[in-house]
Specification:
This protein is an alpha+beta fold and about 220 residues long. It has two domains: about 90 residues, Phosphorylase Kinase, domain 1, CATH 3.30.200; about 100 residues, Orthogonal Bundle (Transferase(Phosphotransferase), domain 1). The chain contains seven helices and ten strands. InterPro entries: Kinase-like_dom_sf.
Length: about 220
Amino acid sequence: MSWEFVAGKIKTIEVVSNNENELVTVKGIPDRFQCIGVGTDAAVVRSVDAPDYAFKVYSNDKLEKLEVEKQVYEKLGQSDFFPNYYGSGSTNLVLSFEKGLTLYDCLLKGIHIPKQAIEDVDKAIVYALSRGLNPRDIHLKNILLHEGRAKLLDVSEYLKQGNDCRWDYLKQGYQENYHVIDGKVVPFWIVETVRKWYNQTQPDTFNFPDFVRKLTKLFRVGA
């Protein structure tokens, strides 16, 4: 079934943003739809009648990000490193549904993250740069792992300037420290504490070795 057939039904969905960069609240999901993901600006829903598509529905106060992300996907074109873009509505983007788990969920479940996934992210970044974009905001929840390969989600910041260094730090952390937790279930409270610590740190004062030492103490407490 085509995505156009079910697209009209998502008009009943209300996505409400929350303060302090918290996840959106989702209301009014119609029958035969399910919410498969939430972020700070939008929620992603999927219809059982058109399972090959994902609808990213934005809150009304974040619609400018919808337009930005639409432009980014149009520049990206077809790529194995990103979802396919099919169209948009007044509050949503229509993308290909991608199977897999985010790297965030892999940590929570103790699922091995292979070196190939890290290499795929690097290749995705090179590809996006070749399309005149500035890939950034690449973090654990924006990287999808399926059958050992990685894909990038959420390209809404790719028109911004500057390097936020998120991927640089994640890659360094993987290379130097991932062996310590590889295959281990990392408690949710630890992952969330790490995320909040990083988000509360000013980029110009961030010190990677100090941050790792702080994390090491946290992991000892959670062990």
